[in-house]
Amino acid sequence: MTDSLASSGLVVVDKPAGMTSHDVVGRLRRLYSTKKVGHAGTLDPMATGVLVVGIERGTKFLAHLVASTKSYDATIRLGQATTTDDAEGEVLTERSRSCADMGEALADAEIYAGVDKLTGDIMQRPTAVSAIKIDGKRAHERVRDGESVEIPARPVTVSRFTVHDIRRNGEFIDLDVTVDCSSGTYIRALARDLGGDLGVGGHLTALRRTAVGPFSLDGARTLEDLATEADSGTTPAVTLPLDAALPACYPTLEVTAEEGAALAMGKWLEPRGLTGTHAAVTPDGRAIALVKEQGKRLATVFVAHPSTL
């Protein structure tokens, strides 16, 4: 294995607040001394937690990294709506029912009923300040340029929406929640819609992503930890080299060394009756490629160990 492939893979970062995902990429480019760094699943500057980053050939794998589920811990504030659906936006409305004290005007049962309404398979309108592209331009860029943005609702799945604590301070109600959801779900939009359905407005004041597919905070590293390792004179190790990253994300298909060599050259194999994409792994533990049956061929989707490297 070449040095390039030995240093390739995924780094699971515990992103700090106040940094964009692009900021994290820039930091890792310096720490790993390479321009080949990219991220999957953008986190807003306010948010913290799991950010999956590809290093060297790991950047090529990011395009095939499909995380169907994500998990978050968040705080939702009821009684105030903002332009961005989170604490970084300007306040649009501050209201309670009939201008009454929020703590008295909204019962726990109503809050739980509102949460139940937003649990399961729902239609969600993404927040306007998102990275979704509209006619080739990201929605948040259009908002910044003064355009009015209305993104159509789309189906998402919220498999868990649990309220852990309800804190009342008279003016607002803060909810500490945990959300497990499908990729593409906006937690800010859940806060907005919960407040809207209850007639008091709502936005997000804190967000921490605890898991993206198989990657969780348990395996995440802080930028400080990575910098300390780099300061010691060694390039920080990746969290998962490609040989571990591919099987972590896809079911495994065992192939012979000869078959692995063929896949490394981009050749196809005889079909095996597989459904979906698999990680082809040789007897020595190398995840050679992602493969998928296409007609009468078992073809490569992504080659992690090309024969040319």
What do these coordinates show?
With 309 residues, the chain is of the alpha+beta class. Helix content is 25%, strand content 35%. It has ten helices and 18 strands. It has helices spanning 3-6, 21-31, 58-62, 102-105, 108-117, 139-144, 187-197, 223-231, 242-249, 257-264; strands spanning 9-15, 37-40, 48-55, 69-78, 80-82, 91-94, 120-124, 133-134, 137-138, 154-168, 173-182, 202-212, 215-216, 240-241, 252-254, 278-281, 287-294, 297-303. Helix 2 (21-31) packs parallel to helix 8.
Q: Keywords, please?
A:
Pseudouridine synthase, Archaeosine Trna-guanine Transglycosylase, Chain: A, domain 4, 309 residues, 3 domains, elongated, alpha+beta, 10 helices
Report the radius of gyration as a whole number of Å: 23 Å
- CATH architecture tag of the largest domain: 2-Layer Sandwich
Outline the biggest β-sheet.
Answer: 10 strands, mixed
- Kindly provide the name of the CATH class of the largest domain: Alpha Beta
Q: How many helices in DSSP terms? A: 10
CATH topology of the largest domain: Pseudouridine synthase
The shape, in one word, is: elongated
Helix amount? 10-25%
- Tell me how many strands there are: 18
State mean pLDDT (0 to 100 scale). Answer: 89
Structural class: alpha+beta
CATH superfamily of the largest domain: Pseudouridine synthase
Percentage of residues in strands: 25-35%
Please report the distance between the alpha carbons of the first and last residues: 8 Å
How many structural domains can be distinguished in the coordinates?
Answer: 3
Poorly predicted ranges: none
What is the string of SSEs from the N terminus onward? Answer: HEHEEHEEEHHEEEHEEHEEHEHEHEEE
